[in-house]
Amino acid sequence: MQKALIVYGTKTGTAAVTAQEIAQALQNKGVETKVVDAKKEKIRSITEYDLIIVGSGIQIGCWNSEPENFIKKYKQELAKKNLALYVNCGSAAEKLNPDKPEIAANAKTKYLDEKAAKYNLKPVALGFFGAIYNFNTMSWIMRKGMENERSKLAANYKETAPGVYDTRDIDAIQKWAEELGTKI
Questions:
Q1: Is 40 exposed, middle or buried (CB count within 10 Å of its CB: 0-12, 13-18, 19+)?
Q2: C-beta of residue 58 within 8 angstroms of C-beta of residue 29
Q3: How would you write 88-126 as a 3-class SS string?
Q4: What is the DSSP letter of 47?
Q5: What's the CA gap between 153 and 155, in Å, rounded?
Q6: Which end of the chain is more exposed for a tag (fewer CB within 10 A), N or C?
Q7: Residues 63-106 pLDDT 10s
Q8: What is the pTM assigned to this prediction?
């Protein structure tokens, strides 16, 4: 049986939910999958895995430190493995900036292509997914900064719970994960 490891870092929980959705899609294809929150659990070895997926939420233009530290630690081994990277990023929500497709394109390049190049990695896949905005759990300063965006979120995305907007395309995440299963 093929084995996959998903390592993620998150501040708001979006990368965690996405990791679980990716894991479910891989498991449905018969891939044994382990999901690890890089902040809570340290990986001792990646030798046994056929596929490594590293994901991060983007906060203030940066990856979370834990998944980046994982990449730094294992960069030589990752260069020899089937590797995929994904990010959850507000810039991926194209409906928020329909007249500026370059916002999403530039963010994808910065957070995925440039991240892979920084560590001399050649991923088999890059996943660029939207974010979940939870106005109930956001810090006061973040909520204040997002005030102008909230009306755009409400106009373009379904409120999944009071004050919560999910800009991710779940079907695209599942399709991406299923395709990953064929690259092992």
A1: exposed
A2: no
A3: ECHHHCHHHCCCCHHHHHHHHHHHHHHHHHHCCCCCCEE
A4: T
A5: 5
A6: N
A7: 999 999 999 999 999 999 999 999 999 999 888 888 888 999 99
A8: 0.94
DSSP string of 70-93, one letter each residue: HHHHHHHHHTTSEEEEEEE-GGG-
Q: Of 58, 30, 37, whose CA–CA distance to 177 is shortest?
A: 30
Tell me the residue length of the chain: 184
Cα 116 → chain centroid? 14
**Domains contained in the chain, CATH given:** 3-131+169-181 (3.40.50.360), 133-166 (no CATH)
pLDDT by residue (tens digit) across 99-136?
888 999 999 999 999 999 999 999 999 999 999 999 99
The DSSP bridge pattern shows strands 132-134 and 164-166 to be: antiparallel
